[in-house]
Amino acid sequence: MFREMMTMFTGDKYCTPGIRSRIPVYLQNILWYMIETMVVPHKDDLQVFQLEGVYEAGKWKQKIVHSQAQSDYSQSYAICTKSIFTCKIFVIDDRTHCTMLLAEEY
């Protein structure tokens, strides 16, 4: 089981047309990195990201809430960006590859 957890989200990575057209590559890479570096006893095969704008310290920032479908995990981040995106993104690992998609593409 430990070996299986170590290989979660390490396969080929794909993005759907919705992700490619609406989410910039730098933000896609941040989401992949958040999955790769999360420290949990078990990575669920469905990762969830909620993106929205938040006003902090006189600036608009991109808020990213990262959670898992089956396990008690939630991390919130606020990063400075030029553009704010509001959407829900799923990342699914089916053991052969990983797919990032907008919730409405599910």
Automatic annotation (TrEMBL):
Protein name: DUF960 domain-containing protein
Database matches in Pfam families: DUF960
Gene3D superfamilies xrefs: enterococcus faecalis protein (3.10.450.150)
Domain of life according to the entry: Bacteria
